[in-house]
Write a structure and sequence with these properties.
The protein is mainly alpha-helical and 181 residues long. Helices cover 81% and strands 0% of the residues.
Length: 181
C-alpha cells in the first residue's frame, strides 16, 4: 500500500460507525421521547383525575345543599305549625280540632326530609337533625296529649319560647359540612 493511500477498510469502518451512531442516536432519542410522553401522559391523567374528583365533590356538595335546604324548610314549617297550634290554644283556651292533622302532616314532611339527610348528610348533621325533629315533636305531643283544661298560658308560653330557632345548633354543622365558614 503506497504512502498516501487509505486502506479500503477505513471508509467502510467509518461508514458502519456512522450508521451505528445514527441508529443509536435514534434509539436513544426514541427512548427519551417515550419517557417524556409517558411523564406528560401521567401529568395529564393526574390533572384530569383531580378535575373529575372536583366535579364529583361539587356535585355531592350541591346535592347536600339541596337536601339541607329542604330539611331546614321542613323543620321550620313544623316549628311554625307547632307555634300556630300553641297560639290557637293560648287564644282560645283549647286545642284546635285539626291540630293533630296539621302537626302530623308537618311531622311527616320533616321526617321525609330527614330521610334524604340520612343518605347524604354527615353523621353529625343526621344526629342533630333527628334531635331537632324529636324536640319539636315532643313539644307537639305535649300539646296534643294534654286535655283542653290543662293547657295553661305559662306552660304554653314556655313551649313557645323554646321553639325560637329549631335549627340553631344544626346550621353551623351544615355550613361546616358544605365548606361555608
Amino acid at each position: 500500500m503506497p504512502s498516501g493511500q487509505v486502506s479500503v477498510w477505513v471508509p467502510i469502518v467509518v461508514a458502519v460507525l456512522g450508521i451505528v451512531g445514527v441508529i443509536a442516536g435514534q434509539l436513544i432519542n426514541g427512548r427519551r421521547e417515550d419517557r417524556r410522553w409517558t411523564r406528560e401522559k401521567e401529568r395529564d391523567d393526574l390533572r384530569w383525575q383531580r378535575e373529575r374528583d372536583l366535579q364529583v365533590k361539587l356535585h355531592w356538595r350541591e346535592e347536600r345543599l339541596g337536601r339541607y335546604a329542604e330539611f331546614v324548610d321542613a323543620i321550620s314549617k313544623l316549628a311554625l305549625k307547632v307555634q300556630i297550634v300553641i297560639s290557637w290554644a293560648m287564644r282560645e283556651g283549647r286545642k284546635a280540632s285539626d291540630s293533630e292533622t296539621i302537626l302530623s302532616h308537618a311531622h311527616g314532611e320533616a321526617n321525609a326530609a330527614l330521610g334524604a339527610l340520612r343518605i347524604i348528610g354527615s353523621p353529625a348533621v343526621q344526629q342533630e337533625a333527628a334531635k331537632a325533629i324529636d324536640k319539636l315533636w315532643n313539644h307537639a305531643e305535649k300539646i296534643l296529649n294534654a286535655p283542653d283544661d290543662a293547657l295553661s298560658h305559662v306552660e304554653l308560653k314556655s313551649l313557645s319560647r323554646s321553639l325560637d330557632n329549631p335549627v340553631k345548633d344544626l346550621l353551623p354543622m351544615m355550613q361546616a359540612d358544605l365548606g361555608v365558614d
